[in-house]
Design brief:
Helix 2 crosses helix 3 and helix 16 packs across helix 17. The chain is elongated and about 85 Å long. With 496 residues, it is of the alpha/beta class. The strands form two sheets. It has a ten-stranded mixed sheet with strand order 8-17-16-15-14-13-12-9-10-11, sandwiched between helices. Strands 3-2-1-4-5-6-7 form a seven-stranded parallel sheet. It folds into two domains: 209 residues, Rossmann fold (3-Layer(aba) Sandwich), CATH 3.40.50.10260; 272 residues, Ribokinase (UDP-N-acetylmuramoyl-L-alanine:D-glutamate ligase, 3-Layer(aba) Sandwich), CATH 3.40.1190. The protein is built from 17 helices and 17 strands. Helices cover 41% and strands 15% of the residues. It binds ligand LP7C6HRI and potassium ion. Ligand LP7C6HRI binds next to helix 1, helix 2 and helix 3.
């Protein structure tokens, strides 16, 4: 699903008005009817409704919703903190609201409201042009302390759609009901406490116009052509389903390699190899009898460059440490290995600390840092909008694919396009979770044969196994090992 900026949304809005054609007040009615439907499907009319309406078109939407809910016998009260003069459609809807005469217009929001209430934020939407201050700021702080159900129309008031929000005076919504397309701000971790859950309501802006809008940002949806590449051909044998090697861990740290290898095996790889030091061979063989062992000549760390000529893909990095021999192995892989490289965790720190290696990164290498590791690569940033800019320039400069892990993990291609992943949850934030992602990436790359498409689908499947684990076992109980088991359902889900 494409993410558009405010300018593009306004243009799509205008295009629809002129070409459908539809009057702007009727478009407002259509948008608000979608809001009304969403609300009435979830809250019955035992809930009292308070609508905070600004004086622009976001306020206009709020007034339409107030009218429609009142006509369905909800008790609705409206507060107009910016007064009664505003945009044409706002003023027209204020007239219509007054005409039905069942909605109370309050001077102030009461000091107490019952928990069985809904507060609808229609103060500012996409027209926000500066931080909220003064009396309005006090109002937002007050409502943020109420325990009611809070719904923001289009955007939580105070939040900017396309850039970092400089102030914390922002309506804290439980639900944000946004029109037509998601906004970039919704993807940023620091904004989640204001957005709550977001839903995109189809207000029937011109589809073709929107399809033709150019955007570097989107939310991932499984692509059926790519998904079909995962299907096994009837002539599949272990050799043509891909060969992957995991180079991870070291003495007393083989868990990372085992988790990655298991995830890889359960994601369809044909042959999995694990490079281990001599002391660790038994552990790996006991844990994954399916794995071939590549024996490193070092006793405690991994550092031998072995024969990887038949390997389609190598995962290098999880818990591998920072020994000099390991660094040399990484350098040799960057220089000589001809297959697909997936670099994670300590590999990324090694790159950051030995920056000359960055110039050796083969085109299309997949890197999977979390924010801490990514900052080591690109320097500090103070919000996710800055992170996204750094991500783009890093990928474009080095011609690599980076998965920046977090809430809505961002997968960036070498051309600067960014796809945000919608699956996953906080229960996945446990040691070992990233190792699984490496395993999934390695398993599906040989069939998909494109770094960006592989990364998007692997991150999606990883999150989906996390979501299934959460649903069945709960956020606290779930573990990376449980997630590996749930890969079964995750693959089935995307196959159907
Ligand atoms: N996009 C669509 O397809 C549709 C959008 N609708 C709704 O319209 C709003 C956008 O309306 P707009 O009138 O452009 O902006 P706002 O209502 O958000 O506010 C504009 C108003 O507020 C002033 N202002 C901005 N920031 C501040 C501030 N910090 N303090 C005080 N005043 C401020 C600004 O100058 C303007 O005067 C969109 O979000 C949707 O809800 C349509 O109804 C349906 C189609
Ligand atoms: K709003």
């Amino acid at each position: 699903m494409k993410i558009l900026n405010i300018q593009q949304i306004r243009e799509a809005d205008q295009y629809t008005i002129e070409n459908e054609p539809i009057k702007s007040i009727d478009l407002m009615e259509r948008a608000s009817y979608e809001l009304f439907t969403w609300i009435t499907e979830r809250f019955n009319n035992d809930f009292s409704v308070y609508v905070l309406a600004g004086s622009g078109n976001n306020g206009g939407d709020g007034l339409v919703v107030a009218r429609l809910l009142s006509e369905s016998d909800y008790k609705v009260q409206v507060i107009l903190p910016l007064g009664k003069n505003g945009s044409d459609d706002f003023e027209e809807n204020l007239k219509r609201l007054k005409k039905i005469n069942t909605v109370l217009i309050l001077e102030e929001l009461p000091e107490q409201i019952s928990e069985k209430s809904i507060i609808i934020d229609a103060i500012f939407g996409s027209g926000l042009s500066r931080p909220i201050e003064g009396r309005l700021a006090d109002l937002i702080k007050k409502v943020n302390n109420f325990e009611a159900n809070k719904i923001a129309i289009d955007m939580p008031s105070g939040l900017f759609a396309d850039k970092a929000s400089p102030s914390e005076i922002i309506f804290k919504a439980d639900y944000t009901l946004s029109f037509q397309v998601p906004k970039l701000a919704f993807m940023m971790a620091e904004n989640q406490e204001y957005i709550g859950e977001f839903e995109i309501l189809d207000i029937k802006l011109d589809k073709e116009y929107i399809n033709n809008c150019l955007s570097d940002y989107s939310i991932y949806e499984v692509d059926s052509v790519i998904k079909n590449r995962l299907k096994l051909k009837s002539i599949a044998h272990k050799g043509n389903r891909g060969r992957a090697t995991i180079i991870a861990g070291g003495y007393a740290r083989m868990g990372a390699a085992i988790l990655a290898a298991r995830a890889c095996l359960h994601s369809g790889i044909g042959l999995i190899s694990v490079q281990t030091c001599p002391h660790c061979i038994d552990i790996v063989q006991n844990q994954i009898p399916e794995a071939l062992i590549l024996t490193d000549e070092n006793e405690y760390v991994l550092g031998s460059y072995l024969d990887y000529s038949k390997q389609d893909v190598i995962v290098f990095g999880p818990a591998i440490g920072f020994a000099h021999k390991t660094l040399v192995l990484l350098e040799n892989l960057l220089k000589d290995y001809q297959g697909q490289l997936i670099l994670d965790a300590d590999a990324i720190t090694l790159l950051a600390e030995n920056r000359e290696l960055l110039n050796l990164l083969p085109e299309g290498t997949i890197l999977t840092p979390h924010h801490g590791e990514f900052k080591r690569l690109v320097g500090k940033y103070s919000n996710n909008f800055e992170a996204i800019m750094q991500l783009k320039s890093f990928c474009m400069h080095h011609k690599v694919v980076v998965v920046l892990k977090g809430k809505f993990s961002a997968v960036c291609n070498a051309d600067g396009k960014i796809s945000f992943n919608p699956t996953g949850n906080a229960g996945m934030a446990k040691g070992g979770s990233g190792d699984l992602l490496c395993g999934i990436l390695a398993a599906i790359y040989p069939r998909i044969k494109n770094s960006y498409e592989t990364a998007k689908l692997a991150v999606y499947l990883h999150g989906l196994s996390g979501d299934i684990s959460k649903e069945e076992k709960g956020e606290n109980f779930m573990t990376p090992s449980i997630m590996i088991e749930k890969l079964q359902s995750a693959f089935k889900k995307i196959e159907n």
